[in-house]
Design goal:
alpha+beta, 27% helix, 5-stranded mixed β-sheet, NOV_C, single chain
Length: 416
Amino acid sequence: MRTQIDAAAAWMLALLAKGRPSAVDDFVRRIARLSVIVCNELVLEYEYDGQTQQLAQAVAHIATSREPSERQGAFAALVGTAYLEVDRVTQVPYWYEFGPQLAAFMGVDAYGDQFGHILASDDRAREQILAAKKVTRDDLAAAADLLGRAHELDLEDVLEPPLPAQRPSGDPQEPGGEPAAQGDATPTAGDALPPGKGTPAPDAPELAPPTGVDAPAGGSGTGGAAPGGTSRTAPPALPKLELSEITFEVANPGQVPSPNPGAGGGSGGGGGGGAWTADLVGPDRHLLGRQGELAALEVERQRVVAMGYDPSVVVHRADLQQFAPYDIESVDENGVRVYIEVKATSGDDPSAPFDISHAELMQAIRHGDRYRIYRVTSARSSSPHVTAYLDPIALVRSGKATLDTASARMRFGADE
């Protein structure tokens, strides 16, 4: 399995060098300090307040430590051990789950899905991934050379037909293909922004709601053929958001009641309060999620303006990066960077269960009290309500939220 990671390393580095050149040196150092242990079954144990818990559903994990440098005054090097469970049938690791963890280890979380694709693919598929990002043969050769693996890369068998010429030098691109903003002064975790500095905060700009749906490949955005040849129609457009009517509150959840042994699971689909968005698929779910993000973005901008900050500190990360591990970046009352995941529903109960991905769960664990989940209810209306749940992992530990790791669904307790 180490061989597979090493074979994919040059492709991942070439992609990284094109979009995030400042992370190249860290990648080269850390990939060399990553060891791999393969197992038939992986069970993670963690201890909190003297209690040991197990996470049997984990299939990949990178344990990290700091290795003191022999040079006086040098920073301790980050060292990792990757534990990979292999599929019992195929005997292949779960590369798509491992990709986001490898990206986090490298300090480039937004590349997690792309790393997973590269790890799970052969060279021909990797060629298509990199071609879409305008990565050239020279870029791949330079990456292999940096890793000391140029002699193992047969460029005569890859990247054919020839890729476009090198992109002119300029702003680097993020994974979603959008150019990075010039002079981006977005603070990193722990940076503080002094309130009241600079020019007065302007009114939050009006956000344009979605006006259509993503068109399927080779078709229009108004219809097309679903798998199996059956026709489908586009979902109805959602109403324009009335920005002044979107409401916001910070939740104060109580204890989640014990489940009724005789009750069925889930919410039973759409309808009134408690609707679970898992019954939505395709463009309809995309539109509802997008509407929720726009509503959350508006109330978050209003919140930071009320604290004395410029609304530009709120970044719609999901709009800038296709594979962003969270939806919105913002700041708290002390100016410290926080991370927001938006979960929208057509129902009116923010405590209804919802899906949470493995990558999102890892972000919640990693960022702790700097991570929030914004539940947007009545998302099909022009005036949704946004409920903020702060530090969801702490809520799980205190019994005020539950986490079903078997189906990866989270539920908050109703407000007291």
